Amino acid sequence: KMYRTVKATSGRQIFQPLHTLRNAEKELLPGFHQFEWQPALKNVSSSWDVGIIDGLSGWTSSVDDIPAETIGRRFRYDVALVSALKDLEEDIMEGLRERGLDDSACTSGFTVVIKESCDGMGDVSEKHGSGPAVPEKAVRFSFTIMSVYIRLDEEEDAVTIFQEQKPNSELSCRPLCLMFVDESDHETLTGILGPVVAERKAMLESRLILTIGGMQRSFRFFFRGTGYDEKMVRELEGLEASGSTYVCTLCDSTRAEASENMVLHSITRSHGENLERYEIWRTNPFSESADELRDRVKGVSAKPFMETQPTLDALHCDIGNATE
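Above: the chain sequence. Below: its structure as tokens.
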């Protein structure tokens, strides 16, 4: 992005001295731009450098001096979104012009759709290092701005002013949080991503006021957890792993039922219901045996903590293809 900017202004590729690149870089990092939320976000830290969890003693304050025992680093979610939107400033303004919209009239009614992704990164162990003992696996949580659209009046259809052309490219995917965790470690994952979920929830109930193209505009956000693989969906929703009798992340079908009935599958699970089932699993109100209890909660055995959208998962796609 910064080389593009340098090139765009001059028409020639120039290699800048280091300090100018440093300054350009600062603008791209979360924490640089001014913005506000209306109403203010609930339960969200006001300092933007909340980014470090030290495996021994909780949060530390600065992003630069990282203690050796750090197991997670992240940006505050809203600050990262602001940075991503500012990065798309030219595209948004161009989108308004292309649609023939008067940019001075378009100050509110913007909606941004975010795709969230989270996946394990496998083995990241040091080969010959003598560093601190951290888990040898890492998990990366990231987001992509999929589209920005604007609705000028209530009755009118929304007009899309930005659509990500390469939504699966690493260039449009922005890291939010990196952690030394095994993705199967439900407790640690919950501990680190818990605040991210709280921030996301707060943002759903508020509007972002941000200067784009020299004018203050207001944005609402929608989050879609469509970048998780099946293992991660099961992990986040507290379901048993993929070898479970309950094959599907969206309905309660067992392997036997799925193999006999190829047609009648519908989405029956919801995040709220999984939470209720976890409570049943935890308290066992009917004093049932382990097998009976498991049959009752249909494979929910941990506390689900990040609501994933019920989009079609791999199993339903396979069943759909088989029916075809």
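The chain is about 30% helix and 25% strand.
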